[in-house]
Amino acid sequence: MKCAICKSGMTRPGTTTVTLERGGSILVMKEVPAEICANCSEDYVAASTAHDIMILAGKFAQTGAQVDIRRYVRNW
Predict the structure, then answer these.
(1) Per residue in 5-23, is it b (16+ CB within 10 Å) or e — as a string?
(2) Which of 6, 72, 9, 75 is nearest to 45 (CA)?
(3) Alpha carbon distance 43, 22 (integer Å)
(4) Which of 24, 40, 44 lies closest to 32 in space, CA to CA?
(5) pTM of the model
(6) Burial class of 32 by CB neighbour count within 10 A (0 to 12, 13 to 18, 19+)
(7) What is the distance of C-alpha 51 from the center of its chain?
(8) Where are the beta strands (DSSP E) in the chain?
(9) The predicted structure's pLDDT at residue 22
């Protein structure tokens, strides 16, 4: 797909790191599948992947931990 940010690059499959902050807790999710722009490196995460991460972030925020770093693994 064409990049919505730089408007000239095309994306290709890759991985990215997603960092979320919620209620004083920080979740870092590594190796998240994404489409990455070859020109500007903007990353695009699929809606289903973002949904999985948001569910995990909600559970993490409830634990009271301040920082968590994980490798993304899709829960089927």
Answers:
(1) eeeebebeeeebebebeee
(2) 72
(3) 21
(4) 44
(5) 0.86
(6) buried
(7) 10
(8) 11-22, 25-37, 43-44, 67-71
(9) 78
Q: Is the pLDDT of residue 20 over 90?
A: yes
Residues sharing a CB contact under 8 Å with residue 65, sequence separation 6 or more, in sequence order: 25
- Give CA–CA dist 47/6, Å, rounded: 21
- Amino acid at the residue 36: I
Digit-coded pLDDT (tens) for 37-71: 999 999 999 999 999 999 888 888 888 889 999 99
Q: How many CB atoms lie within 10 A of CB 45?
A: 19
Bridge partners for 74 per DSSP: none
Annotate 32-48 with DSSP letters as a single string: EEEEEETTT--EE--HH
Distance, in Å, from the CA atom of 41 to the CA atom of 24, rounded to the nearest integer, reads 28
